[in-house]
Structures are given as C-alpha cells and as structure tokens.
Amino acid sequence: MNRYRIPLGFTSFLLASTAFAGNPALAASCEGLTGLKLPDTTITMAQSEAAGAFTPPKSVAGTKPIPVAFCRVAGSIKPTSDSDIRFEVWLPQTRWTRRYESVGNGGFAGAIPLNAMVRPLIGGSAVAGTNDGHETPVNTQVEWALGHPEKIIDFGYRAVHLTAVISKLITSAFYGNKPKHSYFIGCSTGGREALTEAQRYPKDFDGIAAGDPGNQWTHQHSGDAANMKAFLASEAGYISSADVQKIGSAIIEQCDAIDGVKDGLVNDPRECQINLESLPLTPPQLKTYQALHDGPKTSSGKQIFPGMPFGSEAVGWSQYFSGPSFAEAHIKARRAIMANETFENLVYRDPKWDFMSFDSDKSPTDIEKTLGHVMDATDPNFTGFKAHGGKLISYHGWADSDITPFATLNYYTTVVAVQGRLAGKTTASAAKSPDGSALGKTQAFYRLFFVPGMGHCGGGPGPNQFGQTGGDGDADHDVVAALERWVEKNAAPKRIIATKYVDNDRSKAVEMTRPLCVYPEAAKYKGSGDTNDASNFICADPSAEK
Ligand SMILES: [Ca+2]
C-alpha cells in the first residue's frame, strides 16, 4: 500500500557496503547512501563532514562550524511532475540518540532551514529540513506559486510529510535501525506545519512542538489585509514607529502592576483594563489603534481574526505595520507584504491587487474557498494523533503581533470543547476520573504555554529563551527536551523555566528567569523574594481564584 517503503534487498546491499565503511557501528557508509533507491527521490549528495569542517552557508549571526562529525545527505522528492521538494538530512556519525527530528520553516519558506538543524544534530538527533518545494531568496515572496498548483500543495502539507517519510528511511538505512522516536519542532509557519502534521499525518511524529502557529492561515492573511487597510486608511490615522513606542510604554505603565509584579511585563493581556482615551494618540490614530486591538470584522460584525494584545505594540508593530513611513508602509511593512503577496499570487492572480481593495465581506470567503483545504490546519479533533500516542506542546508569545496569541487561545478552546464532547460519550465513571474533564483530556496529549512579554517566536522584553530553537537539553528549561521527556518517559511538562538574557543574547548574563505554565495556569508571584528568580513563582489557575 505504501510506495514510501525501503525496497527489499537494499538492507543486504547496505550490509555488504559496511565492509568498506570502516565503521562497524553503522549499517551503511555515508557516501554509499547515494545508491539508495527511494520512491520519487533523487539523492544529490551524501558526504561525511568532519567535526568542525562545516558551517551552514546561510549563516545567521553567531553561526559557527558544526562541532560534531555527521553524514550530510541532500536530495529532491518529486511526487508530481511540478514538484521539486528539496531536503537535507544530517546524521550524527557517533552517539546517535535514536531520535529523528524534522525542523519547520518560516514565512513562505523557500529554503532548507539549515541553521535550525544544527542544535538537534549536536544533541545527537538525526535531523531533516525542507525548502517546502520551492526556492526563494526571501521568505516573503510567493511568485513561485503562479501557475504551479502542485507547488502550493507541496507548501501546504506535502513537502514536510514526504521529507519526514524519506528522511526516516535514509536514517534507517544509515544506522541499520529505525528511529525510536520522531519529533517535529517549528514556530510560525513551522507551527502551522506542526499542527498540519498532527492533523493530517498523525503517525509521522511522536512529539510535536507548535510555536506561535500560523495554522488559521487563510483567516490570518485576511486579518493582515484588513489590519493594513485600517492602519493606512489615512495619513492622519497612521501610527508611526515612534508613536508605537509611546503607546507601548503607556500601556505597560497602566497594565504592569495588575499581575502583582512591577517588572515591565504584562503577565496576561486579557487582564488589562486600559482607558484608551488616555493613550498618547490623536483621535484618528485612536481609531486605527482600536481597529487593530479589536481585530477585523465583517460588515455584520463577524470576527475575521482576533485582535492584537495589549503589550504587543512596542515589541513588533513597528516592523509589522508601521514600516519606515506612511508612504513606505504600503510596500515595506511586513504584514502588508505578506497580505499583498498572498492575495495577488494565490487568490486573485492579479499583480495590481493591493490590501486597500480588501473587501471584508468577500475576500475572507475567497481566500478560504481557494486555499483553506490546502493551507489551514484547524481540525480540532486529533483523533489519529491521540490514537498514535502523540504528544503536542504549543506555545505563543503574549506580545506577538505577527500572529496574535488570541488566535491560538481560540483554537485551543475549540480543541478542549471537542474533547469535552468526546468525554461525554464515555461512561459515567470515566467522566468522573481525574482526566475525565475536557481540559484534562486535552492536556493528556496537548499542552499550551503562553509566554508573557515574548514577541513572535522570540524577542520582546520577557523571558523568551526556553530552548525553542534548540536548548541545553535540560527538560526543565528546554521545551524540546520537555517534549522528549513527555514522549519517552510519559512525564508531562508542568512548567518550563524561561530565561531572559541581557540584550536577548544567550552569551550574556541572565537578567531574569520565570516559569511558563500550562494554560490556563499562569505564573504567580509568591509574595516574597527576588522577582527575577523563577523559584519565587508558582503556577496557578487565575480563574480558580475568582
Ligand atoms: Ca507585571
């Protein structure tokens, strides 16, 4: 039934080849993997990299030569004649933990995320990433999609799935052993990919981390267009980068102490009661602010996408909405670019389309009809993933204005409701058991952590490092390690301690630590001791106290 299975007889070929490999621990030589015959797949490279010999070419600041020896495999998967799903899989030469990990993409993808593969590799996992089926110089472009419907499907769900299937086969061939446990780790688009996998291909991964997920993809892009249209409706109502900083400061000033700790952080933006009239805004600017805070609606008042959280302003609005100036924001604000690229290339196929022509009664339906079945990952059931025994951790920055955290909150609420309905079908005694509640049933496989003061996948004034881009392997501080512990030892994470470094630089001193708690719990100060020390906080459900 499955074409994506290792061909019979290949194992003996691999075993024969080990005579030349000089490494009795491995089933195949690295270079020998080029001879591997896999469905729809061409292996274009398989080469051994010595410790310290390889530095990822698309380096970000701080990228260093990789200090471990590994087998670097690259290839292309072509499930359709229009497909070219490029991937790499990196296999540690020694001390493989028998874990397999796929890492996710950002934006509209278009490159293999090599940098995200480094930490899992160093940690001993076989790790893979894909370009999602297209190459682009920047991940905000979608011109590649014009006239290529199969590439849109590759981007939507096929590339990540096939990369996992093929990369696991390569991993098994190299070691002569299947991975014991498989993981997917991603944020933003990677968060959408994560939820897509759990919903569409529930057997691909045992543990999945979905950070700041863009899983309500079509609604989110409608939201982008609507927000930009409101933001740039008039020059008088435009909120500049400088204004954004002023509003941000004013809001923190009003909200900070509500959580009991004056630390520059809003623990939960839902608790803020802001007198909007008091903000340093002119009346037309206030109208703009209110539009983004409330979130876009249709003419009949139906919510298209949730609004922006209090406390997100100074963290990201400048980049996402304000741009360098009123005139330039139309083409330089990140959400303007994403909205225009999406509707121009994927929905209306009209290069002249601009978010100013967004129709709040028609455009959301147009995008959902065209792309919802490919791009959205909003199925709340998780029946297959639960049956597989999968574990899912989601996190979202409370100060994220790229993808509002209220979208994740709404989605999680629908998942809990479904688990409640499923629980209703069980026997009365099961319903009374400790995990009988809708929330308990959900938390048995899916836990959500909000991160106060964190922007989109990182950044912001709050403790924003908890291993989401690869941590120190300590499950109490590292979300990936916490997920591995949950999957492998059935120890569900109750809290994860996040760290704020000076200048958000991990090589600098620790400024603050704070527990991230399992929603609906939140960090609560014990009332004494240093508020920069996580040990002086507990996790408690605020609604239980009211
Ligand atoms: Ca506070």
Give the total of beta strands.
13
Task: Note the overall shape.
Answer: globular
Outline the low-pLDDT stretches.
7-24
Q: What portion of residues is helical?
A: 25-40%
Main beta-sheet strand count, sense and barrel state: 9 strands, mixed
Computed CA radius of gyration, to the nearest angstrom: 24 Å
Residue-averaged pLDDT: 92
Bin the strand percentage: 15-25%
Bound molecules: calcium ion
Report on this model:
The structure is a single chain. This protein has helices spanning about 10-20, 115-120, 150-175, 190-200, 215-230, 240-255, 285-295, 315-320, 325-330, 335-345, 365-375, 385-390, 405-425, 430, 440-445, 480-490; strands at about 40-50, 70-75, 85-90, 100-105, 125-130, 180-185, 205-210, 390-395, 445-450, 495-500, 510-515, 520-525, 535-540. The chain is of the alpha/beta class. It folds into three domains: about 1-180, no CATH class; about 185-215 and about 380-495, no CATH class; about 220-375, no CATH class. The protein has a nine-stranded mixed beta sheet, sandwiched between helices. Helix 5 packs across helix 10. The longest helix has 27 residues, at about 150-175. Residues about 5-25 have low confidence and may be disordered. Calcium ion (CA) binds near residues 261, 263, 265 and 267.
